[in-house]
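wait is this the right file?? whatever heres the structure
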């Protein structure tokens, strides 16, 4: 649900030509921007000042970018281009034929600790605008950002206990994805394997990985 106060509203249109001028885009990506995007609007600025909350230690501002699409399936690199342009956390609201999807990235400190690097993207399902899981909850920008990421990610980042940090939840979700991929690859091998003893060994590996997955 969008409950952004009027104090956060900007509604500044970003001409697509701005992307061409400021970034060295490939011909393919330029074509995708022209053909797949109708409009880009910087709609809201969520900050300590506009929300009247405390500043965060990790998050200063969250910019809300609304993108109207010609079709739901589009080149995901467009999102990454906009991420590279804006040095703040970004909440994307994608629209196609009156249906919306919320997307937000989780960023971690670089190994040197001097910058934020993209760790993962999280998205909601497509729904009516008023049904978007984007309720502003928290008394600091850090907590507002964490709650937005968890709402949009849904079950993927549901913590087993209230004490689990967002970083730990993201790492756990990442490990789950890794295990699922390994299990799927092993099951494909089993279907192709002719030797019974090899099938037994592969099944044993699947059970071990499944046990790890179930424990997360």
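ok assuming it is, sequence goes like this
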């Amino acid at each position: 649900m969008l409950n952004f106060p009027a104090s956060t509203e900007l509604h500044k249109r970003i001409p697509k030509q701005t992307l061409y001028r400021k970034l060295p885009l490939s011909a393919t990506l330029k074509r995708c921007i022209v053909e797949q995007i109708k409009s880009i609007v910087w709609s809201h600025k969520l900050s300590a000042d506009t929300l009247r909350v405390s500043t965060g230690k990790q998050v200063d501002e969250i910019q809300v970018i609304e993108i109207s699409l010609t079709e739901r399936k589009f080149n995901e690199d467009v999102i990454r281009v906009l991420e590279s342009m804006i040095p703040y956390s970004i909440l994307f609201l994608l629209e196609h034929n009156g249906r919306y999807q919320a997307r937000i990235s989780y960023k971690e400190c670089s190994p040197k600790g001097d910058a934020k690097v993209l760790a993962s993207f999280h998205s909601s399902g497509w729904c009516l605008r008023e049904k978007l899981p984007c309720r502003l909850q928290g008394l600091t920008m850090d907590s507002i950002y964490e709650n937005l990421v968890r709402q949009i990610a849904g079950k993927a980042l549901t913590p087993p206990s209230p004490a689990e940090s967002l970083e730990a939840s993201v790492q756990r979700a990442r490990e789950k994805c890794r295990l699922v991929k390994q299990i799927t690859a092993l099951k494909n091998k089993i279907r192709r394997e002719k030797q019974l003893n090899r099938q037994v060994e592969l099944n044993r590996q699947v059970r071990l990985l499944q046990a790890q997955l179930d424990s997360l």
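The two ends are 29 Å apart (CA to CA). so i think its the right one actually
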